[in-house]
Design brief:
The complex is a heterodimer of chains A (454) and B (189).
Chain A lengths: L1 H10 L14 H13 L31 H24 L2 H18 L6 H13 L5 E2 H17 L2 H6 L1 H9 L8 H7 L1 H15 L5 H4 L4 H4 L5 H14 L5 H5 L2 H10 L28 E2 L7 H31 L1 H5 L3 H13 L8 H9 L3 H38 L8 E2 L15 H17 L1
Antiparallel strand pairs in A: 2-3
Helix pairs in contact in A: 1-2, 3-4, 3-6, 4-8, 5-6, 5-10, 6-15, 8-13, 10-15, 10-20, 16-20, 18-20
Chain B lengths: L1 H35 E2 L3 E5 L9 H5 L7 E5 L35 E7 L2 E6 L9 H9 L4 E5 L11 H5 L5 E5 L14
Antiparallel strand pairs in B: 2-7, 3-6, 4-5
The chains are: A mainly alpha (454), B alpha+beta (189).
């Protein structure tokens, strides 16, 4: 109250005010300042509310209630039930049709009914901020949404991606003519997702921004309106998604990065065949997401020698890439720090004070009105820049490490005797089951069993 | 063959170990989440004493029709005839003529109460949250008009797009059972 009174009386001089009790000499202004400082509570009332003779009473300011907290618990319950159901339909029932229905229901509920917020992808940032900022209290729904799909992935693979995630679902339904993406390209493009995850963690940890939410490409579709630039990005992704299945999931989704790596360890997961692989090659093109790995022969002698050299080169290159990433991330620290509003304010104020720019902006005006000293602001900015120096180096190192690891992974060939779903890339959509003749055998048998019982 | 078996076991052991470590990690995240979570639902709100009525609320909201609207605390209003929130700086007349109105959408209703007092009410569906009236009221009046996030409209985005664009960092999270920061007795700045 005190602060507001001072601001109004210092910077806003009433002018041209026939009805004002303070129509303006300097003496009355000084008096007003003294008065407002003494009587802070009354300071902001320039024109005391009238005492009405007509019996008029002040109406109440309406205050519509916020959404009750139990809605979030319902969402969490729907998530858990949905994931159990997804696990059952994908791993036990092995029915693409049922998975599709569940996916549509999840898309309608988490997408269109609940407006795409909160989702596990964005919850990464809430969890990160909780770890780094002791003043931040994470919404319980965000914690649940972050943890539950991870647990399910450790047990059942990426059932969340395949059947529950509304962002995955909206891309899955538009896929009409899948085009294969070469494995090296897929792997390279996926570096974007790792970078996105690293950047999201960096910006959330420093309290700068929640970039995953800011650039969520599909939330505008769920809400039927939003920022045009992001709607255009979302529409482009859906257009690409007509031919390249789930481009956001495969090349951008930061939560997908976490899930795919946990999925490598999962207890149970999608197996193309219900019994044994007869190497009929019928499933070879069944996966629109390039997640089916064919059996591999040993390297031919000549190729093997080249591959060995290549692997050695990449192993040497790995520390170079990490070092390069660290250097690049550290070099970009000032640009990265600019995402933080405090740093931007400090830079603007500095330029204004140094006379390097003319005029003021809303940001600098608002800062000056708070009455904080420049020193405090500059100290904050320096501290954030320091944080971004360390964080940028870590981010760059992480990206370098992933890039190097990918190069190495691409040049190592693991012996495989069967066609199988890739541990990491399989999003558990259940499309491949129907291509396996053994699956048809199984279905026929179970049908006969049902008929026989009847 | 024995060698291979051994190898498989080692790999299996590593996998199991990693799996356990990951589960422990997820458990830690869950523990941290529960320990540090806020049982109160938190929602976005504007601190009216920090708001500078810059106009970003009208354009940056994720919704087409911004969730931020102007509110009137009647007990603070001066009920002035010459209302600097309602009228343009040099009005032709002190009346409801469109040419005299400051509000770009005509969302402020001016009602005669008794001489010389007029009541000013916000027609919320028309208000776009631009804050022109707020500025007028703040600079020359009592500041009884100010912007608030209306929770019947707000989607409570994880990151509020307006908060990210707010030049004075006036947006903050408040408990959902007390979701408004109205000027007056109940608000401490």
């Amino acid at each position: 109250m005190m602060r507001f009174a001072r601001i109004t009386s210092r910077s806003r001089v009433p002018q041209n005010m026939p009805h004002s009790p303070f129509c303006g000499t300097w003496i009355s202004l000084v008096l007003m300042i003294l008065l407002t400082l003494c009587l802070s509570a009354q300071g902001e009332i320039r024109f005391p509310p009238p005492e009405f003779e007509s019996g008029y009473t002040f109406p109440q300011t309406t205050s519509p209630a916020a959404q009750p907290v139990y809605r979030e618990y319902i969402d969490a319950a729907v998530l858990v039930v949905g994931l159990f159901l997804a696990s059952y339909l994908i791993l036990k029932r092995r029915s693409r049709r049922a998975v599709f229905v569940l996916m549509i229901v999840a898309l309608l509920y988490f997408g269109f009914v609940r407006d795409g917020c909160i989702c596990p992808i964005g919850a990464i940032q809430n969890v990160t901020l909780t770890a780094f900022d002791s003043d931040y209290a994470i919404p319980i729904a965000a914690a649940i949404f972050f943890v539950v799909p991870l647990v399910f992935t450790l047990f059942h693979g990426r059932v969340f991606c395949g059947a529950i995630c509304p962002l995955g679902a909206i891309q899955d339904v538009v896929l009409i003519r899948p085009v294969a993406v070469p494995r090296w390209l897929e792997s390279g493009l996926r570096l974007m997702a790792y970078t996105y995850l690293g950047a999201a963690v960096l910006f959330a940890a420093t309290g700068s921004a929640f970039i995953i939410c800011r650039y969520d490409p599909f939330v505008g579709f769920f809400r039927l309106g939003g920022n045009w630039n992001i709607l255009i990005v979302g529409a482009s992704l859906l257009l690409i998604g007509l031919f390249i299945g789930r481009p956001y999931c495969r090349f951008l989704c930061p939560y997908g990065v976490v899930l795919r790596n946990l999925s490598r360890l999962s207890k149970r997961r999608v197996t193309i065949t219900p019994s044994e692989c007869i190497q009929c090659r019928l499933c070879e093109n069944a996966c629109p997401f390039g997640a089916i790995r064919e059996p591999t022969e040993d390297w031919p002698e000549g190729e093997y020698r080249i591959a060995k050299k290549r692997l050695a080169l990449f192993l040497v290159l790995l520390p170079v890439l990490v070092a390069g990433g660290v250097w690049g991330g550290y070099t970009l620290r000032n640009q990265l720090a600019r995402v933080h509003p405090r740093v931007r304010t400090a830079e603007r104020i500095y330029l204004e004070e140094a006379g390097k720019v003319q005029g003021t902006t809303n940001v600098s005006d608002a800062f000056r009105a708070t009455g904080q000293t420049f020193e405090v602001l500059y100290e904050d900015a320096t501290r954030f820049r320091g944080q971004f120096g360390l964080g940028g180096a870590l981010l760059g190192g992480f990206v370098g490490l992933v890039a190097g690891g990918k190069l190495i992974a691409l040049s190592v060939r693991r012996r495989r005797t069967e066609y199988e779903a890739d541990l990491a890339s399989c999003v558990a959509c259940a499309r491949c089951y129907r291509s396996c003749p053994k699956e048809h055998e199984r279905l026929k048998k179970s049908k006969e069993a049902v008929v026989g019982r009847a | 063959m024995a060698d291979k078996q051994d190898n498989m076991n080692r790999r299996k052991f590593l996998r199991e170990g990693l799996w356990g470590a990951c589960l422990a990690g997820v458990g830690t995240a869950a523990g941290l989440g529960v320990a540090r979570s806020n049982p109160d639902n938190m929602v976005w709100q504007i601190d009216p004493y920090k708001c500078i009525a810059c106009g970003n609320c009208a354009t940056y909201c994720a919704l087409e029709d911004s969730a931020v609207k102007c509110v009137q605390v009647y007990a603070m209003c001066g009920y002035c005839d010459l209302c600097t929130a309602y009228l343009v700086p040099e009005p032709k007349a002190l009346d409801t003529g469109a040419e005299n109105e400051l509000c770009p959408t005509g969302a402020i209703k001016r009602t005669y109460i008794e001489d010389p007092y007029y009541e000013y009410t916000i027609d919320e569906p028309l208000c776009n949250g631009c804050g022109k009236c707020v500025k007028g009221c703040m600079i020359f009046g009592n500041g009884s008009l100010f912007l608030q996030v209306r929770h019947d409209r707000c989607k409570n985005c994880n990151e509020c797009a307006i908060a990210a664009a707010c030049p004075s960092q006036a947006f903050k999270r408040v408990p959902a059972d007390r979701p408004y920061l109205l000027k007056g007795a109940d608000h401490k700045s």
